[in-house]
Amino acid sequence: MPNAPRTTRLAVLALIVLALIWSYNWIVAKSALRYIGALDFAAWRCALGALLLLALLPLTGRSLKPPPWRPVFGVGLLQSAAMTGLSQLALVAGGAGKTAVLVYIMPFWMMAFAALLLGEKPHRLQYAAAAIAACGLALVIQPWALQGTPLSSLLAVAGGASWAAGAVIAKRAFRDHPIDLLCLTAWSMTVGAVILSALALATHDQPTIWSSPQLLLALAYNAVLATALAWILWLFILRSLPAAIAGLSTLMIPVLSVLQAFWLLGEYPDRLEGGGIVLILLALALLGAAGFWQTGRAALRRLVDRA
Question: What would the pLDDT profile of 276-292 be if each residue is shown by its tens digit?
Answer without folding.
Answer: 878 877 887 777 666 65
